[in-house]
Amino acid sequence: MDKMEKAIQLLRAEFGEEWQKIVQSLGVQDLCSRCGKELTSFIAYPERGEGGSSKWRGNCSPKVVEAILKYVLDTKKYYRQDTSHFTLLDPMSGSGTSKTVADRFGVNSILYDLNPTPACGMGNWNALKNDVNDSADLIFFHPPYHDIIKYSGNMWGKPHEDDLSRCINYNDFIEKLNFVIKKLYISLRKDGRLAILVGDIRSNGEFHSIQSDMMKIGTPESFIVKGQYSCTSDSRRYNKPFIPIVTEYMVIFRKDNPLIIPFSWTRTGECDITKRDCQTLTWYHLIRSVMEQLGGTAELSQLYQMLENHPKARANIHYKERIRATLYEHKDTYIQTGNGQYRLNYTVV
Ligand SMILES: C[S@@+](CC[C@H](N)C(=O)[O-])C[C@H]1O[C@@H](n2cnc3c(N)ncnc32)[C@H](O)[C@@H]1O
C-alpha cells in the first residue's frame, strides 16, 4: 500500500466521509492565506458555508461574498472612512447568498433578480431594462455563465427573453453582460468596488473565457482565481480528451473617479493570411501554412497559383524565385518528392 492510500485509510477511519473536505481545506490553506492576509489572489472553499441555498443551481459559497465584503470594509476602516451607510448590492441575487452575509456583517443590502419570486429582495428586476435606483459601496455581481445553467423556465417561471442564461449565442451574451457591467459601474459610489464572479465555460464544444471576453471597467484592483467544488459535471465521465474547468474568477474593479470611466474590452477578429500580410508572417510560414491547407503536399505550380495575389508576391515581381528559394533554404521542412513536388516533414492532421 503506498503512502497516499495509507493516509486516506487513516483519515477515513478517524473522520469518516468528511476526510476529503478536511484534506482539501488543508491543501489550499497556504495559498488562501499568506503574509497575514485572509484574502489572496487564490480562494477555495471546499465547505460551502451557511447562507443562500446549495440547492439553487449555480449558487456561490457565502464565503466568497464574505471575503470580498470583509476586505472592502477593512480597507475603508484602515483609511478611516465612514462605513455607517455601507451598502452591498447584488443585482442577480439567486438564492440570496449575499443577503445572509450582509446581515452577518450588519451592513445594508439591496438584492434584485429577474425571478418574480426570489428568495429575498426585489423580484422582476430586469438588468437589461430596469434602472438601478440605488447606489452601493460594493456590488457583488454573479451572472449566469451564458447557457450552462438556464434560470427562467428551469429554476423559476417561464423562459424570459432577457434572462442572461437564454442569450441566442455567446456573443449576444457578452454584449448583454457588458451592458449590465456598465450599468452597475455607474451605480457604484466613489471608492466603491464592483466584484464580478464569472467562470470559463465549454458550450456546444467551444471553450469561452468569460472573464477574458467581458469588458474591464474602472481601476483594476485584483483578479482572484477560485477553486470550484461540487459541480454537477464532476460526476460525469467523458471519453474525449479535454481540459476540465475547475476554477472560476472574481475580478474586482474600483471606482476612483465618479466622472471619468476607464474601460477596455477584447477585440476579436479573423485574419486570412493568404490575403493579408503582416510583419510576423514570413515566406517560410506562409508556404508551410498553404501546404498544411493542401494536406501536406504541393506542386510548385500550386504554390505559385495560390500565392500570386498575396501582398508579398505583389510586392516582389520575382516571387516565384522567392518561393523556390524558400523551399531550398528549408530543405529539412520541405522534402522534395519529385520534380517540382514537395511534402512537409510532418504529418498534417
Ligand atoms: C448565478 S445565479 C446567482 C446565484 C447567487 N449568487 C446565489 O448564490 O444563489 C444568476 C441569477 O441571475 C438571474 N438573472 C438572469 N438574467 C437576469 C436579468 N436580465 N436581470 C436580473 N437577473 C437576472 C437569474 O434569475 C439567477 O438567479
Explain this structure.
This protein is of the alpha/beta class and about 350 residues long. It has two domains: about 10-265, Rossmann fold, CATH 3.40.50.150; about 285-345, no CATH class. About 30% of the residues lie in helices and about 20% in strands. The chain is built from ten helices and 13 strands. It has helices spanning about 5-15, 20-30, 60-80, 95-105, 170-185, 210-215, 285-295, 300-305, 310-315, 320-330; strands at about 40-45, 85-90, 110, 135-140, 190-205, 205-210, 215, 220-225, 245-255, 265, 295-300, 335-340, 340-345. Helix 5 (about 170-185) links the parallel strand 4 and strand 5. Helix 3 (about 60-80) packs parallel to helix 4. The two termini are about 45 Å apart. About 30% of the residues are buried. The mean pLDDT is about 95. S-adenosylmethionine binds next to loops.
Summarize the structure.
The chain has 349 residues and is α/β, with parallel strands linked by helices. It contains ten helices and 13 strands. The chain has helices spanning 3-15, 19-32, 62-78, 97-105, 170-186, 210-213, 283-293, 300-307, 311-314, 319-329; strands at residues 42-43, 87-90, 108-111, 136-141, 188-203, 206-209, 216-217, 219-227, 247-254, 263-264, 297-299, 334-338, 341-344.
The structural domain count equals 2
Dominant shape: globular
Stretches with pLDDT under 50, minimum 5 residues? none
DSSP strand (E) fraction? Answer: 15-25%
Q: Report the mean per-residue pLDDT as an integer.
A: 95
| Largest sheet, strands/sense/barrel | 8 strands, mixed
The CATH architecture name of the largest domain reads: 3-Layer(aba) Sandwich
Annotated CATH topology of the largest domain: Rossmann fold
Number of strands: 13
Provide the structure class. Answer: alpha/beta
Tell me roughly what share of residues is in helical segments: 25-40%
Ends apart, CA distance between termini: 43 Å
Total number of helical segments? 10
SSE string: HHEHEHEEHEEHEEEEHEHHHEE
- Say which CATH homologous superfamily of the largest domain is assigned: Vaccinia Virus protein VP39
At the first level of CATH, the class of the largest domain is Alpha Beta
Bound molecules: S-adenosylmethionine
Query: C-alpha Rg, in Å?
Result: 27 Å
